[in-house]
Every structure is written in structure tokens, then in C-alpha cells.
Amino acid sequence: MTNVQTALLHELEPIVEQNLNRHLKAAKPWLPHDYVPWSKGRDFAFLGGEDWVPEDSPLDPVAKAALLVNLLTEDNLPSYHREIATRFGRDGAWGSWVGQWTAEEGRHSIALRDYLVVTRGIDPVNLENMRMRHTIAGYDSGDKTPLQALAYVSFQELATRVSHRNTGKASGCPIADQLLARVALDENLHMVFYRNLMDAALDISPDAAMCAIRDEVIGFSMPGMNMPGFQDNAILIAKAGIYDMRIHHDDVVQPVLRFWKIFEREDFGPEGEQAREQVDGFLKMLDERAKYYEEKAKARESVLSS
């Protein structure tokens, strides 16, 4: 890490402490086991019961795909912890946040897995095999600077919140909907923390922060994209309106940029101004692509209904 990046992290530390205290006041503790319908559970063959068969699942293919992607994404928490601990450090307010965030995120995979195994929503053997493969492979975001990492997680936490919330609504199960709504509340608070830190970074170092934002808007990908079968599942999820290009543009990228007042700021130098123009151009392209896929979907629906 360069001396400039180290100095920026040090300068941001009082803002980290303020936002950590705000977070601790806003976050409501919850217990994963409260959200699992244990009475629906039964033994598998190892303990004298019956192993999973497809007919056991109450979920449709879209719900199964979305819940699988969401859970496997949460499973890579050890890698995510390494990512933020490496970027932000383990000391002071930064270290306190890293620990708090990690502990809160850990509840998500616990609750989602318990729900899916108890309700037999997904083949538990396949789920465990995929968890092993995905977690062994880990997650590596490359050589992101702390500023790039802050920009990325500002968008990614909101994307995860939206994905969880929409998955719950699409699941057809009130219990899954309730659980995922609760997980989404955590993700939203995490997004607010990172978004506020990036907002402060824009005031401290406008050009460097804007360049980091540009890099992460244009290069954004979900942390689970390297999991087995991600692309096929992502297509199912997009077609169902759980998470698609339009949602990413309208409900994830644009709200965060508006909060930072990216297109209203007047403190950018030439480098920051160029980065802002590049973001503007990318968003216009993303909007056009979203319109294209929307038109394709409408045409497909028209053919099916005729």
C-alpha cells in the first residue's frame, strides 16, 4: 500500500469511528435460528431417514437458482474478510469495523443454509459439494486500492441487498421472504457504512476517489460470478426480474452516485472530470443495453401469448 493510501486511511479513521457508532446504534441483533421452520425438518438416510429427492423441494427452479447463488456467495466470507482486513487493517476503528462486519455477515449463510436444508429446498449433497468447490477457490478482487475497495463494496452491498430482497419476494415462501428481508436489512446498513466512507473520501481526495468510482462502476461484477454454473443461474435470475441490468442501473448504481452528488460536484480536477465523463458514458451505454433486453423480453412474451 502506498504512503498516500495509508495517509488517506488514517485521515478517514475518525469518520470510520463515527459511522461504526452510528451502525451499532442502528443495527438490531437477530438470531438465525428464529427464522428457520425446524418443525418441517426430518432425518436423512445417514440417521435412518430418507435422503433428498427433487420432489421434496417446494421451490420453483428460479427460486432454487437464486437461493443457491445467494448462499454460495455468502459462503465465501473467509475470503471477503481477508479482502477488507488487507485493505483497511485490523487496528483502531477500521479493525473494529472489520470484525463487526464479519460477525454480522456470518449469520447470513448460517440462516440460509439451515432454511434450505430443513425445508429440503435444495439438494443438500450438491449444495455441500458446491460450497466446498467455491470456498476452496475463494475470492480475490485483485490489487484493488483501499479507495477502489470502498467504491466496490458501496455498490456490491446494495446489489446484494436488492438480490436478497427480490429473491425472498420471488420464492413463494413467506418464511424465506421474512428471512431474506432480515438479511437485506443487514446488507443495507453495511452499504450505508461504506457509502458514507466513500462520500468522505470524495471530500478529502476528489480526483482519486472519482477515479476509483469510475473503475468500480465500469468493472463491476458480483463476488459470486466465478462459482460453478453462475452464468446459467444469472440468466434465470435476470429473466425472473430478481436481478438484471435494469435493476443494476436504476436501483444500485444510480442511487449511490446520486448520494455522492457525482454529477453535481465542482471540485474535480482534470483527472476527476475525465473519470466522471467516463462514468456518464458507461451509464448511458448500460441504459441502452437494459432497454435492448427489455424489448427482447417483451417480444418473447408477445410470441408466447399469441
UniProtKB/TrEMBL annotation:
Protein name: Acyl-[acyl-carrier protein] desaturase
Free-text comment on the cofactor: Binds 2 iron ions per subunit.
Binding site for Fe cation 1: E74, E105, H108, E187
Any one GO molecular function term: metal ion binding
Subunit field text: Homodimer.
Superkingdom assignment: Bacteria
Family: Belongs to the fatty acid desaturase type 2 family.
Any one cellular-component term (Gene Ontology): cytosol
Keyword Electron transport: no
Cofactor entry: Fe cation; Fe(2+)
Assigned keywords, A-Z: Fatty acid biosynthesis, Fatty acid metabolism, Iron, Lipid biosynthesis, Lipid metabolism, Metal-binding, Oxidoreductase
Annotated binding of Fe cation 2, by residue: E105, E157, E187, H190
Organism: Mycolicibacter terrae
GO biological process, any: fatty acid biosynthetic process
Entry keyword annotation includes Iron: yes
